[in-house]
Amino acid sequence: MPERILLVDDEPSLLEAYERLLHKEFQISSTLTPELALTKIKNEDPFAVVISDMHMPEMNGIQMLVKVKAISPSTTRILLTGNTDIHVATQAVNEGNIFRFLSKPCDKETLIKTLHAGVAQHRLLKAEKELLEATLQGSIRVLAEVLSVVDPASFGCAMRVHRYVEYITSKLAMEDSWQLEIAAMMSQLGCVTLDFETIEAVHAGKEILPEQQARYDLHPAVASDLMAKIPRMEPVAWMIAHQNDFTPPVMEERFGSELADRIQVGAKILGAALTFDGCMQRGVSKGEAVKKVRSRYPELDPKISHYLTEVDADEFMIARTCSVEDLAPGMILRQEVRTNAGMLMVSKGQEVTLQLILKLKDVFEKGDVVGGILVALPKSLQLNVERPTAK
Q1: Handedness of CA 224, 262, 40, 22 (dihedral sign)
Q2: Which residues contact 338 (CB under 8 A, 6 or more apart)?
Q3: Is residue 156 located within the same domain as residue 214?
Q4: Among 158, 201, 263, 304, which residue is least crowded by beta carbons within 10 Å?
């Protein structure tokens, strides 16, 4: 099926002419007002291209295409106008990130050629988004699993913080949330350069020597340098580097104002999640943890600190001790798992995954760890536990 094209113009006769001209090559939809166009974009399947007239009542074409970008970033935006003023063209490109600027009247060949280029651009952006959000995230998860073997305490912290961040981004419907989620997963990567005693003491909330603290304070910069070597990971690297900054510096010249705002908010959310998790691991009440977060990040939306308290609050209701054979993905560990020699294998609060189950089965079978494991069950697993088995 051909990609969908949305035409927006307040002149019905022009829309009818465009539809007759283009319907054989594209799947055409049209509206007479920007408001109706934005509603269609929000409520229907994605459009590959939106082509809009410049001069319309209540909202001009540039203003509408700016909103289109916010709603559907991969949709290609084209402006069609009879005004050839260079100022209008510059404004269209700078404010709306317009793909093409066409002057009216536009001949059939130019219009069709431009729409085909717009469709190709949409496919490119869509493929790039899928690569970044799916393939790259999968690779990052592999890197995280490596961290789990090298540094279980830091990995456990990263996974807990990732769970907080993932919940917050879903509640806020954040654009490009994958960047912040990857930043959370990799936030502790720099800890691989630290000695085991320092990491254990930090995550246990114990005091450490000044020289140990100085080395620990460098771990965000180490992780940031590693992530910056991966293409398209610069925003992620910046959030990781500034995870402990209460007021991250302005960097509009580096990323542009819109992306800079999202990255700065992301760094603060990451810092808030780390602050909250640190309080939780030290046994501080949720109320006191929220006060700590709000005192450190007073400009952050109060809803965010409230969302932190909701993670694991209602979803995980039943705690039980089970054997390693009874572990299932989605459970949350309510205790550390250590070997008989005292070596940390898994941190408290870590979510159970298939990889973790295999790791624990191996050490239990070798006799390095004995006894049951205290876990919390999500509601979906509670149903399976409580359902009687057939006889």
Answers
A1: negative
A2: 344, 345, 369
A3: yes
A4: 201
Output Rg (C-alpha) for the chain, integer angstroms. Answer: 26
Judgement on whether residues 278 and 359 belong to the same structural domain of the protein: no
Chain centre distance of CA 296: 22
- Asked whether residue 146 is domain-assigned, the answer is no
Q: Are 285 and 356 members of one domain?
A: no
Whether 202 and 301 share a structural domain:
yes
Strands lying side by side in the sheet with 27-31: 27-31, 4-8, 49-53, 76-81, 100-103
Integer CA distances (angstroms), 256 to 89, 96, 97, 235, 264, in order: 20, 13, 12, 11, 12
pLDDT tens per residue across span 101-156: 888 778 888 889 999 999 999 998 888 777 766 777 677 777 777 788 788 888 88
Map residue 15 onto helix, strand or coil.
helix
Q: What is the span of the domain harbouring residue 49?
A: 4-125
Cβ 200 vs Cβ 254: under 8 Å: no
Query: Distance between terminal CA atoms of the chain?
Result: 52
* pLDDT single digits (tens) 71-90: 888 899 998 877 656 666 66
From 254, 219, 261, select the one nearest 240 (Cα to Cα). Answer: 219
- The rounded distance, in Å, linking the Cα atoms of 75 and 121 is 9
Contact 7, 18 (CB under 8 A): yes
